[in-house]
Amino acid sequence: MKNKGQAWGFDLFAAIFIFLGGIVIFYFYSLNYPSEGTNTLQSLSYEGNLIAEMLLTEGYPQNWNENNVVRIGIMSKNKINETKLEKLYNMTLIEKDYKKTQGIFTVRNNYFISPSKPFIINNIGVNLIGRNYTDNSQNIIKISRLTIYKDEPITLNIYIWN
């Protein structure tokens, strides 16, 4: 008697194991992926609103500067205070101070502030305060607030991204 046969039991077990492993991985990925996007959007929205609310206050202390600021605010008497605006602008020009503003705003993500009409700082029209996003930036959102600058209504746009 010659025994010719094929050991297919182990091959079948390995194939079933790989197939089921793929289904389990796909299942967990498909369940978690949409919630990651929602969590990212909610996080960015929360941080953007936090910056907007803080900016539209007087800040603390009321006459804050780069060294003693606890809470950054650019308003005085319900208008944008040009001195505070210039201080914020100067803080965002230096990387170390920009990181400090992120800490004060209690945000992890990058941001920039853009008015509907340019701010005039040091006799220069400024359209952006903060860090500009790059082409590889992801998940950018925009928060808009209406305020007064030089006795005219403007829209203050806060962009935040990761």
Q: Return residue spans where pLDDT drops below 50 for at least 5 consecutive residues.
A: none
**Tally of structural domains:** 1
Average pLDDT: 89
Measured between the Cα atoms of the first and last residue, the distance is 72 Å
Counting DSSP E segments of at least 2 residues, the number of strands comes to 8
Main-sheet strand order equals 6-3-8-7
Main sheet attributes: strand count, strand direction, barrel closure: 4 strands, antiparallel
Describe, in short, the structure shown.
Helices cover 43% and strands 23% of the residues. It is α+β, with helices and mostly antiparallel strands. The chain has a four-stranded antiparallel sheet. Strands 1-2 form a two-stranded antiparallel ribbon.
Structure overview:
- The chain is an alpha+beta fold and about 160 residues long.
- The chain has one domain (about 50-160).
- Helices cover about 45% and strands about 25% of the residues.
- It contains 3 helices and 8 strands, in the order αββααββββββ.
- It has helices at about 10-55, 80-95, 95-105, and strands spanning about 75, 80, 110-115, 120, 125, 130, 140-150, 150-160.
- Helix 2 packs across helix 3.
- It is elongated and about 95 Å long.
- The N and C termini lie far apart (about 70 Å).
- The mean pLDDT is about 90.
Set down the secondary structure blueprint.
Blueprint: H1 9-55, E1 75-76, E2 79-80, H2 82-93, H3 95-105, E3 110-115, E4 119-121, E5 124-126, E6 129-130, E7 141-149, E8 152-161
Antiparallel strand pairs: 1-2, 3-6, 3-8, 4-5, 7-8
